[in-house]
Design a protein that fits this description.
This protein is mainly beta. The chain contains one helix and six strands. It has one domain: SH3 type barrels. The chain is 10% helix and 43% strand.
């Protein structure tokens, strides 16, 4: 049976797997989401529950005038949060 002690390394691994914060559907506003045929490369600021926000390279799968449907990989995990449109900038692939 393994140890139940919480080590700094175990805590670090747990926090690294924490999902990013995603906006609720109420934030989407009245305009429909336009889904892109080809994902568009973007830089996006992503917020995390227990660590600072960070800028990540990802792709926008869809957007409207308020939000962006983002997809990105981090630490071996794939995430698809919804972020504010002004938190994204076009990235040259």
């Amino acid at each position: 049976m393994g140890s139940t002690k919480v080590t700094g390394e175990k805590l670090k691994q747990t926090l690294a797997r924490e999902a990013p914060i995603t906006l609720p559907q109420q934030a989407f506003g009245p305009n429909p989401i336009e889904w892109f045929k080809e994902p568009r490369p973007v830089w996006a600021w992503v917020q995390w529950r227990d660590r600072p926000a960070e800028r990540v390279a990802g792709v926008a799968r869809g957007a409207n005038d308020r939000v962006v449907m983002l997809a990105f990989d981090a630490n071996g995990d794939h995430w698809e949060p919804v972020v504010w449109r002004n938190a994204c900038a076009v990235r040259r692939a």
